[in-house]
């Protein structure tokens, strides 16, 4: 009976550790996706900036070509510059929002790690048998118990 309880306890502990690892992986994946989106938006904003810097010194009645919904259309520089500026401002706003989301998710993950490390330290480190198993996990989460 006691061995059955120990087996159940060990199974629960292992499931808890697996759940922690899955939650941690989800946080990391979300942060990685946000970072990728931020990089993409930064690149697109830089492209807009370069095009604006190239077009602004040119005569306003000069024709240029712009891609609109996958179709190349002929416009004048005078027509294109306001649209480019509007798009660049929109990209800046999106970028600012993504950076806020990234920082919020990073803060949430740090708080989550802090709570989980405390729980792991309280539950398992007093038991030498489990400390060798839990110590690497604590290190992964950023051990705050020592």
Please tell me about this protein's structure:
- With 146 residues, the chain is mainly α.
- The protein has one domain (1-113): Helix Hairpins (Orthogonal Bundle).
- Helix content is 79%, strand content 8%.
- It contains three helices and two strands; from the N terminus they run H-E-E-H-H.
- The protein has helices at residues 2-55, 77-124, 128-141; strands spanning 63-68, 71-76.
- The protein has a two-stranded antiparallel ribbon with strand order 1-2.
- A hairpin with a 2-residue loop joins strand 1 (63-68) and strand 2 (71-76).
- Helix 1 (2-55) runs antiparallel to helix 2 and helix 2 (77-124) runs antiparallel to helix 3 (128-141).
- The mean pLDDT is 84.
What is the class in the CATH system?
Answer: Mainly Alpha
Structural class computed from helices and strand pairing: mainly alpha
Largest β-sheet summary: 2 strands, antiparallel
Question: Uncertain regions: pLDDT < 50 for 5+ in a row?
Answer: none
Mean pLDDT: 84
Total discrete domains: 1
Q: What is the 3D form?
A: rod-shaped
Mind telling me which CATH architecture this is? Answer: Orthogonal Bundle
CATH topology: Helix Hairpins
Seen as an oligomer or otherwise, the chain set is single chain
Helix content: over 70%
Instruction: Enumerate how many helices there are, as a single number.
Output: 3
N to C succession of SSEs: HEEHH
What percent strand?
A: 5-15%
Gyration radius from CA atoms, angstroms: 26 Å
- Structure summary, number of beta strands: 2
Give the strand order, joined by hyphens, for the main sheet: 1-2
Protein name: Prefoldin subunit 2
Pfam family, one: Prefoldin_2
InterPro entries: PFD2 (IPR027235), PFD_beta-like (IPR002777), Prefoldin (IPR009053)
GO molecular function: unfolded protein binding
């Amino acid at each position: 009976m006691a061995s059955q309880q120990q087996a159940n306890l060990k199974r629960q502990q292992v499931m808890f550790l697996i759940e922690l690892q899955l939650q941690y992986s989800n946080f990391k994946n979300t942060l990685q996706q946000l970072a990728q989106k931020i990089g993409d938006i930064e690149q697109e904003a830089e492209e807009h900036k370069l095009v604006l810097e190239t077009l602004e010194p040119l005569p306003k009645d000069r024709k240029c070509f712009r891609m609109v919904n996958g179709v190349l259309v002929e416009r004048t520089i005078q027509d294109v510059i306001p649209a480019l500026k509007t798009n660049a401002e929109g990209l800046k706003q999106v970028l600012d929002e993504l950076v806020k989301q990234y920082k919020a998710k990073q803060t949430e993950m740090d708080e989550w790690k802090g709570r989980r490390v405390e729980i792991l330290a309280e539950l398992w480190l007093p038991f030498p048998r489990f400390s060798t198993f839990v110590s690497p996990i604590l290190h992964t989460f950023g051990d705050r118990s020592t």
